[in-house]
Amino acid sequence: MATTVAASVETLREMDKTPESLLPYIIDVVVGVYEGERSKDELPHGSGRCTFKNGSTYEGLWRDGYMHGQGTYVWVDGVQFKGDFHMNQIQGTGTFAWPNGDVYVGELRGGKRDGRGRMYLKAEGTCYDGEWLEGLKHGYGKLDYGMGKKYVGDWKEDLKDGNGMMTYKNGDVYNGQWSKGMKQGKGRMDYKETNSFYAGEWYADLPHGKGEQTWKDIGTKNPYLQTFNRYKGDFKEGMRDGQGTFFYATGASYKGDWSKNVKQGEGTFVYEDGTVYTGEFTQDRLPRRQNGDKGPGFSVRVDISDLIGESPDSKSNADLSNCILRFNSELRALYRKYSQVPVKSSKADDACSTSLLSEQIVELCKHHKLVNLDYQLCHARDVISAVCSKLLHTVDVHYFEDESASVLYKDLVEILVRIAFSKYHAIESLAQRFVTLVEQDILPKMGQDPQWHYLSEPSSNEEVFEVKNNHKDALKGLFDDLVGSNQTFEVNAKQLVKLLKAKGLLLVKPKPVVEEAAPEDETGGEEGAQAEEENVEAAKEENGEAKEENQEKAPETVEEEAPEQPVEGEDSDSAKEGEEAEAEAEEGKPSEEEGEEKCKLTLPLALKCFHVANFGSNQTREDIFESGSEEEVGFYQAAISMKYPEFVDSLMLCADLAFEDITFSEKFDKLMSAIIA
After folding, report:
1. Range of 205's domain?
2. What is the pLDDT of residues 39-88, one digit of tens each?
3. Looking at the structure, do residues 325 and 215 belong to the same domain, yes or no?
4. Secondary structure in 3-state letters for 561-621
């Protein structure tokens, strides 16, 4: 009996060997055999199995002669579909299976892949999982080619189009924009073999337009290889072409015309020693330098035009150039030396072996005593920040978070010139200021290795970085509160002393009143006075505040002791702090005993921490820390100003000395908990 049923159609295949789905309509054919339920009109209705005259079969649900509901259709060539039918059309969800092992599982509409689905091609070993539209990959999807190659991103009409990331078999990775199956727009390509990357504009699968290419570490310390070289400028059809700047890891640079990856045309080449050649380049050839003669095209260029204008010496520029060349070898050695040191402000892996970092210059300033109370590290940081802000890397002048900005050799020279200009301002000639800085500060310590670790407990750079990072938000908030409206973004040691005292983290020990106690003992003689003094000292060491001694003495003696406590240099503050210390001592024995167990930090130790953080461990002032007068101590506290990094280092050093028998991380956690509470 004839009825309207679905007919098989020949399976079509796309160009990429993926199978085409059924046509969106079903033609009338004559049924060979039908077995199953029927309607009152004798049409297939309910569950039934049909064998068509062309050999195809269908088994599943029917409605009024139409395949409708769940069913399985098998073509004569072995292709099988199992899933949803709607009025003789494949629509809904289901699974296509081909004899060669290809499989599609997902949504369909009008007989075509449409919606979310997964297609696996056995022969090619590829698998696409994502969105479809009318049988084509369209929308967001993941295509796994096998052997490590895969694409994740946007599709349009079966082609990569939009944003996506492609990982290649050799480990290369592209992440960016696509158009009609090709890399086009903005994107970044990381090349595994050369450990380099290109970031910029693309066209027709090639770098084209504005971009930047960087060669990272390739496991060699030879600075003349492409390690850490960087180019920024124009590209054409995958090659450097047009205007661009090439930065060499050695500190040299070229800025000018390029053609097919070579220097061609007008350009400026800055050598490692800061000398400059400007002129014509042909086929990438650099100008030759014979017998040390730099020729008419060479000159020394350091960007200090603002200083030259202020200097009273009209010949400063020429004189300074000669001085830089005079100390060129020593300054180059200085650059190489400090580019090798670890950076304690970031992870060790972030430090590079050939490029000097801004934070390494900070250590240079400390070790070579370029900073002192008259010219402090906060002033040097302002200079470093100003020079680094002209580079491609940006530096946060508030928190100095980007302390890994790379500094070229000529930029280090500029920083040293600017420091010399301010530190030795009494010298008239700018060139002589620079010579004084090099001869008095830099050269005497060239053969000495600086002390990089100030903590009593050896701690790795990773641990220091992790501790800082864990408390970053709290430290920034505390720093901002202390800075207030100060536009220089600095705090001084006096503020930190007040903070530590207020939080009970600084032991306040009154000075012994030996001279006034002696006259009261009219019968004891010298031996009695000496014995009493020894007892006083022993009691103070045991109880911190010498509470018992204060209670036994007459009221007038206690009043005389208060002003002699360590103060910060101001009479009103001294009286107030003396009262606060006395009030703390009266709060009860438990807090006194616990305070000594928890915290060992005294004012001399705290001042030493501030000094080390700001001037380095090689500049000690025990004469002030241990035995200085109240006036000297107060002046010293008010004189030290610090930026955010030294503020953090000061607290870290204080935590290290304040607590014992626990790890450094636990020490700093304890300190910050007390401050925040």
Report:
1. 194-300
2. 888 889 999 999 888 888 999 999 988 899 999 999 999 999 999 999 88
3. no
4. HHHHCCCCCCHHHHHHHHHHHHHHHCCCHHHHHHHHHHCCCEHHHHHHHHHHHHHCCCCCC
